[in-house]
Model the fold of this input.
Amino acid sequence: MVRITQKKGGCMKKYLIKELILVLLIAFGTAGTSIGAGDEVPFSRFIKPVTNPVYFDEAQNISYIHVVNVYQDLPKRINTKLGRVPLDGYLNLTAVRATYALNEKFSLIAAKDGYITFKPDNTLDNGYGWGDLSLGFKGALYYCPQDEFIVSGKMLFEFSQGSRKVFQGNGDGNVAPSVTFLKGIDKWQLMGTLGMVIPFNAKEESMMVYQSYHVSYAVTPRFFPLVELNHWCVARQADRDDLVPSIVKFEAGDLGNLGSKNGFDHRHLITAAVGFRYRIFETAGFFKNLDFGLAYELPLTNPNNGLMQRRGTADFVLHF
Done:
């Protein structure tokens, strides 16, 4: 990947503009594609959340391929035991995820994979490598299509085969249980999840608790503006001996687990995002629909106590 040398604000604006142009071109190209008159499948009118793409999934059990790209500006400085250390630069993740629904109440998930580029401008070395892989399943705990309400439980198992150059591959993997709800109210969609990341090796990885929330409104059957909120909390800090986890005073959030010895110093990471989903087409041969999502995310906590200055997330969700 070519190193980015422009100012960070300009990089993020160009990223968002490119994605908007792409979806507009596709939208014009598919403007004649018909939208179904009604829901043939329960919950099919609802959309997938955009942010926290590894852990924040929809509550319904549906089959799809999810292509996601996350571009994240790194803070100019980060808080460490040595004081404020310059960082700057960016992190990029490109991943392909998949879910296969055996029926409306149970599905299999390939939730975390992809290639990560970590390019700080200062202090740390550039890193390139594959992320850890997560596999799991999801099942409906309460299923009521008549009230447009569903509660599901999910279990993910993460393997530690990723590259340490991008803060993956440490420890012996983890298990991540979670509970997610979805409620439809007229044209509104409310969704939330609560979960944990429990490492098998407590020395190498921190135990995390997270929660994510989504609110969207169907302006049309195709266009859904949305707002999302994410909260990560260190429940038990790790004790890794490597340089970075020994000095940083925080954890990395959804894209990695540093195994920080000082995670309790700044244990909370809270972010807010605005964006939209656009349903490009519905029912085209074998495929049911194709959705495009875009979100702009900022930390509400001090960005120096984490690796996120700002983030743009863009994805395609191809349902089948």
User: Anything to note?
Assistant: The chain has one domain: 8-319. Residues 8-29 form the longest helix (22 residues).
